[in-house]
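Reader question, answered in our methods column.
A reader sent in the components of a multi-part assembly and asked whether the whole thing could be modeled at once rather than chain by chain. We filled in our standard form and ran it. Here is what they sent:
COMPLEX SIZE: two components
ENTRIES:
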Amino acid sequence: MASPRPTSELPDDSATDRARRPGGRSAAVRRRVLDAALAQLVQHGYDSLSIDVVAERSGVHRTTVYRRWRDVGGLLADVLHEASVDAWRPPDTGSLEGDLVEVNQEVHGALTGDPVTVALIAASFRSGQAATALRAFWTDRYDRCTDIVRRAVDRGEIPAGIDARRLLIAATAPLYHELVLLRSAPDPRLPEQVARSAATAARAGAYG
Amino acid sequence: MASPRPTSELPDDSATDRARRPGGRSAAVRRRVLDAALAQLVQHGYDSLSIDVVAERSGVHRTTVYRRWRDVGGLLADVLHEASVDAWRPPDTGSLEGDLVEVNQEVHGALTGDPVTVALIAASFRSGQAATALRAFWTDRYDRCTDIVRRAVDRGEIPAGIDARRLLIAATAPLYHELVLLRSAPDPRLPEQVARSAATAARAGAYG
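And here is the structure of the entire assembly that came back:
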């Protein structure tokens, strides 16, 4: 759910790209550039990022990188845009609590085991374009997760009329709060605790 | 609850200070320097902060500022430390829900109406010292808020054995998540909605 890490199962957009830009960039070039930008961000931090550094690291010509991405904000926005077009689907374990626990285990893993997510969150405080793209990435993830809530209503687990977004935010926000803002140590019990509390609240009529 | 803004009701620590550092800094000097650091951060951002700029802005000699605070991290840590030693007490409205709503109204106000809090959160992604100090500030605030939970247990509103911190995080985290990470527009209904959901969950036995 939470990790905006590009995957290799992304759709190949080279055809669209070529139609849009005659003689334009291939998906392989895009992949190299975005991988280089992300690796640079994670290894050396936001301040080290520049078109020049990413061009050199990716082996793609500076002019090409500049023309397509313009600046660091453009690179990070495209990293997040690329991560948004994957085939991720929310878990379907057969219960609201089970689904929320699995989502939270993904969030917890992304925030504790993968430097990409935390680096992109930090970058969102430096670049307005990255902030907007991260917001869009999360909005899309929460939208996909509404299936979890719809199925729980269909099964009669929780009342109809629940605000899916409010429930999903309640079920995930404490993880981000503890791990990103409060910088608490990772706690393997946290995903389940937080998910179970949100499910209990939903069954009791919260988020209505 | 949420705003680490220094207030003028801070205890005067000049006596302690003089005892610790013969001929040392007065509370007035500290106030001028920390006010200058905070104003510079809010108006011109983290990258503009330096000992030199803060010294000039405060009218305090560069050597004094350097000797006492060392660097930007030291300045921000002291801003947050100073904010932590105020007399803030959690609301006592007579009900769990009422108390949590008031806390959340403070958080919402700090995150939407006061640039200080958001600037310090952003700075915490740049400076490890600021991050540690912000964590300490919030830990102290959540500790003070455990009174809210204790009183609710005493009144029989919620079961004994509730984990106060988990309840308080659940009652506030969605606000931070929406306003700081998701960058959603301020929503005046949010403080009450989130507080009410957490109170419902607590009554239903969550956070136990």
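What stands out: DSSP finds ten helices and no strands in chain B. Chain B has two domains: 14-84, 96-203.
Send us your own complexes using the same form.
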